[in-house]
Design a protein that fits this description.
InterPro entries: IrrE_HExxH, Rad_response_metalloprotease. This is IrrE N-terminal-like domain-containing protein. With 384 residues, this protein is α/β, with parallel strands linked by helices. It folds into 3 domains: 46 residues, no CATH class; 179 residues, no CATH class; 49 residues. The strands form 2 sheets. Strands 1-7-5-6-2 form a 5-stranded mixed sheet, sandwiched between helices. It has a two-stranded antiparallel sheet with strand order 3-4. A hairpin with a 6-residue loop joins strand 5 and strand 6. Helix 7 crosses helix 11 and helix 17 packs antiparallel against helix 18. It is globular, with a radius of gyration of 23 Å.
Length: 384
């Protein structure tokens, strides 16, 4: 007789919802509706497979009620008027970032790294903090022009590189590790900061547009300058985050991208706000026109009603444009360094070649199998 497991239907529904499984994925088990209704029980093998698919320990599935799942860092998504779920994808991403950071901090200390001066150095002033970030990353408006940066894509690559050269770690990914079946949704996470005076880490959800990622990067920079570690989702110049930490970081990010004094000097025409915002965003600030529109509103260059009307129209236009553009899969070997952070990626491979880091640990940190790690080592050595 087939042995079955007495699983609380509430636990099965909770596990499936938390893992983001829809009817198509649940169809793997023909009797899933009966399990969820309590009309039938899964076999031991089915229950174990279900637990594995929903990324929870088998023992958790046997509990009477769902356990409380908390992030190991601050959840800056709180206070949005609704509960913020912690999916297995988000939790695993935070843990993966922590593992890489912990490994790299040990490595950097062994290499003689000294504490960095900028993590936790921010005062209360938005303008002061924004200026410090822009200066430290060499991203003032004159520096952008000298660097011949063309757009948000080149700007993002530039500031991430500058951050890493200072000693930080910058990661860009839209899935858990290298698993393209485990998506990180923008509605749940846009950015993550892990503070450290040796190797502060910034993670940005790369499912966003390049302009959106650039804003998220500077939002997370503001968290690092504050000395914060936490997960963010309300990252937008028009965020409804209110007056807390997230709103402060959004204002810092906007000021880094579009300094108020510089915008006042350039000027915008109220009657041609959309056109001027588009031109300045493209030619001078290398960001989304939406940031320019709201910066003009905040600086008092246009009245609030007009700015809000133009912002709403441009937001819809840009969203439609982004939806049409879509995203390609990309080359795995080019994508992986960005996912793990180029500095950490290079250090891990170097330590493996030198026999300091084991293959097993490197495979875990990079989320790859043995054959892939061998190919990465070969490609990295040939490129050196």
């Amino acid at each position: 007789m087939t042995k079955r497991v007495n699983v609380n239907p509430t636990m099965m529904r909770w596990a499936a919802e938390r893992a983001g499984l829809g009817e198509e994925q649940l169809a793997t088990w023909p009797k899933w509706r009966a399990w969820f209704d309590g009309a039938a029980q899964p076999t031991v093998q089915q229950a174990r497979a279900f637990a594995k698919r929903t990324h929870i320990p088998f023992g958790v599935l046997l509990l009477d009620e769902p356990p409380e799942v908390n992030l190991p860092v601050a959840d800056f998504r709180a206070g949005r008027g609704r509960s913020c779920r912690v999916s297995p994808q988000l939790l695993d991403t935070v843990y993966a970032c922590q593992r890489v950071q912990d490994w790299y901090v040990d490595y950097a200390r062994d290499e003689g790294a000294e504490p960095l001066g900028f993590p936790g150095s921010a005062g209360k002033g938005i303008g002061e903090t924004a200026a410090a970030i822009a200066t430290t990353l060499q991203f003032t408006v004159p520096a952008r022009r000298r660097g011949k940066l063309r757009d948000a894509t080149t700007a993002l690559r530039y500031v991430a590189d500058r951050f890493e050269k200072l000693g930080g770690l910058a990661m860009f990914n839209s899935v858990v590790g290298n698993n393209t079946h485990r998506t990180l949704f923008l509605e749940e996470v846009r950015g993550l900061s892990l503070n450290s005076d040796i190797a502060p880490l910034i993670f940005v959800n790369s499912a966003d547009t390049k302009a959106g990622q650039l804003f998220s990067f500077f939002h997370e920079c503001a968290h690092i300058w504050r000395g914060d570690s936490g997960v963010s989702v309300d990252i937008s110049p028009d965020s409804r985050a209110g007056g807390g930490v997230e709103a402060w970081c959004n204002k810092v990010a906007a000021e880094v991208l579009v300094p108020a004094d510089d915008l006042r000097a350039e000027g915008v025409r109220a009657a041609a706000l959309a056109e001027d915002a588009e031109r300045l965003a493209r030619e001078r600030y290398l960001c989304s026109p939406l940031v320019v529109i709201l910066a003009a509103k905040a600086a008092g260059l246009v009245d609030a009603e007009r700015a809000d009307r133009v912002f709403s129209r441009e937001s819809a236009r840009l969203a439609a444009l982004a939806a049409k553009t879509g995203k390609g899969g990309g080359d795995f070997y080019r994508t992986l360094p960005a996912r793990i952070g180029r500095t950490a990626y290079e250090a891990i491979l170097r330590q493996v070649r030198d026999g300091v880091t084991s293959y097993t640990e490197a495979m875990s940190l990079l989320d790859v199998r043995l054959g892939t790690l061998d190919r990465l080592l070969d490609r990295n050595e040939n490129a050196a």
